[in-house]
Amino acid sequence: MEPVDVAIVGGGAAGLMAAIWAGRTTPGASIVCLDGAERLGAKILIAGGGRCNVTHDVVDERAFAGASPNAVRKVLRRFDVPETVAFFAACGVTLKREDTGKLFPTTDRARTVLDALVGAARAAGAVLRHPWRVETIARSDERLVVAGPAGTIAARHVVLATGGRSVPKTGSDGHGYTLARALGHSVTTTFPALVPLTLPDGHFLRALSGVAADVTLVLRSATGKRRLALSGSLLCTHKGLSGPVVLDMSRHWRAAIAEDPSVQLVVDWLPALSPEKVDELLLAPGSAGAARRLHAHLPERLARALCEHAGVDGSGPAPALPRAARRALVDAATALVLPITGDRGFAYAEVTAGGVPLTEIRLETMASRVTPGLHLCGEICDVDGRIGGYNFQWAWASGWVAGTSVGAAVGNAGR
Ligand SMILES: Cc1cc2nc3c(=O)[nH]c(=O)nc-3n(C[C@H](O)[C@H](O)[C@H](O)COP(=O)(O)OP(=O)(O)OC[C@H]3O[C@@H](n4cnc5c(N)ncnc54)[C@H](O)[C@@H]3O)c2cc1C
Questions:
Q1: Rounded to two decimals, what is the model's pTM?
Q2: Which single residue of 111, 166, 250, 312 has CA 20 to 30 Å from 329?
Q3: Ligand 1 pocket member 134 (CB < 6 A)
């Protein structure tokens, strides 16, 4: 059995960050970072469409769900966006801000980010081993025994950074939750977040695959009460809906229907216009048809499809439409109920909602309140962020807290 000071389980964003800072905090500590995947950092490489959206210009707790905002803030403020930017710059990765506020490497290549993290972890003295899948972790005397097909390691400290279960082929298949449970932690219900939503076969929006529009999505109860409204770009797909606003809404929709199955998701295709203004637009004098009038604000295919869906002749002069037909079109354009059938599951989800509750973790160190010697960081925690670099910022911040505190604990105990 190989003795080490620190075993980090999972060499993704959070695990690499923890490895770097454990090593930098206590040079000379024996640190291994174990990852079950053949290819290290697969998720970093696919992030942001291969460009890796490292963080966002402004990150605060309001961009996250799962744990309480207070708890999330305690961790985020320990390693904030300016520190993230400085950290990457020191590793040779300069970041650029795009108009959306997202920060990407100036190279536009996720590989730059991964190589920098791997290089920094090695330079800090961490040994990266993969494929090295961890099957079990058990307490034995003063150590945690980490075991898998590749061997057995007796660690004084373990950092559990196994991620969630989104895109399991990258290596994050949810086994980390089993490990956490075996060490006494609870795990809240997990479900896909930042995931495309599906519409029934034959729904008219599925035929508009590729069409995008800036919309407002509203989650409302059957009584019409607004629970949440989010604005942004929506993309029609051959299975249903995607695009940033849909991805951001997906976890809220899923959580809401679990609580109240009568909850509805409604799209306002013309958020800049009130229903009254849309009515006026249709009534304005002139021979232009309804489809052409809507096309002034929407993609043509969508404008025509909305007319068809509302049972309206979109080509005849719009002011001549019967009142009921006009009403139906205004409804379809400003409050179309989306009969969502589900989501595309973990294979298509960018992140996992749910996980180990932050109430079971000391947030100043990311140490387990349940198992001495254990720390947790990254997506395994019950924290999921919006699209835009927030999930990585959580990984960097929680990984930094776990790494520096584990490093300090090794240093304080004397090796
Ligand atoms: C397609 C896609 C695009 C994304 N784009 C962005 C983006 O641009 N910006 C952003 O902020 N977020 C993005 N995310 C989310 C972000 O990638 C994750 O939130 C982040 O990677 C989580 O980091 P982590 O280290 O906690 O987990 P992961 O990155 O999932 O790493 C966990 C590691 O643990 C290893 N592991 C798991 N179980 C075991 C085990 N039993 N033994 C050994 N090793 C194990 C896995 O192989 C994996 O390498 C994206 C996600 C996806 C899927």
A1: 0.96
A2: 250
A3: yes
Whether the pLDDT of residue 197 is over 90: the answer is yes
Give pLDDT, residue 73: 98
Q: What is the dihedral of CA 140, 405, 188, 241, to 10 degrees?
A: -130
Q: Does ligand 1 come within 6 angstroms of the Cβ of 352? A: no
Write out pLDDT tens, residues 359-400: 999 999 999 999 999 999 999 999 999 999 999 999 999 999
CB-based contacts of 23, cutoff 8 Å, min separation 6: 29, 31, 121, 123, 124, 125, 126, 403, 407
Please tell me whether the peptide bond between 27 and the residue prior to it is cis, using omega within 30 degrees of 0.
no
Q: Among 103, 109, 152, 391, which residue has the most ligand 1 atoms within 8 Å of its CB, making it the best to mutate? A: 391
pLDDT at 413: 82
Q: CA–CA distance from 258 to each of 26, 255, 383 (Å)?
A: 46, 5, 18
Q: How many residues does the chain have?
A: 415
Helices assigned H by DSSP within 95-135: 110-123
- Determine whether the shortest distance from the Cβ of 161 to ligand 1 is under 6 A: yes
Tokens of 360: 């079971």
CA of 224 to the centre of ligand 1 (A): 37
